[in-house]
Amino acid sequence: MSAEIQVTPKGSMVFNNKSVQGTEINTINKMNNQITNQSVAINYFTLNPLIFHGFTDGTGKYSLSNQTTTIPKMATVGASSKLLTENVYADSSMRNKIGTYNQDWSLSRDTNNTAWFCIETSSNLLLSFDPAGTSSECYKINAKGDILASKVTLSQPSSNGSTKTVTLNSQ
Q: pTM of the predicted model, to two decimals?
């Protein structure tokens, strides 16, 4: 199983009547080298501090985010906090809400010199065809904050009550 994620900066844009930056996220999921799902979304955010405002995708989905805290520039291993609540709608009319998701951030020890900075999401937003379960997007960082590796973990409940977990590691 693999996920190829291509990030393309789109520059200055307007989203929800705000001046923002946009980034296109093209995700191709494969199993046994066969494409099982492909999605294209644009994430909208502002910088200094980094605030996520929402996304739109190729199916017409439209999300609005209420970010309650900013990601800190410095944190201690073991620190964590709620980051945002995001409402996702079927389209930009926002008449049909299809989900509400929460995100938290955390910093956990990896080695004496590295840590994992993770953003945990209350749903598998990377699996648009089956959002049940949770997902986390983690970055291995050093003390300067340089990104050394990344991983995405998807956890899905199964019909027998157990949980299936798949972790995709960067190469």
A: 0.79
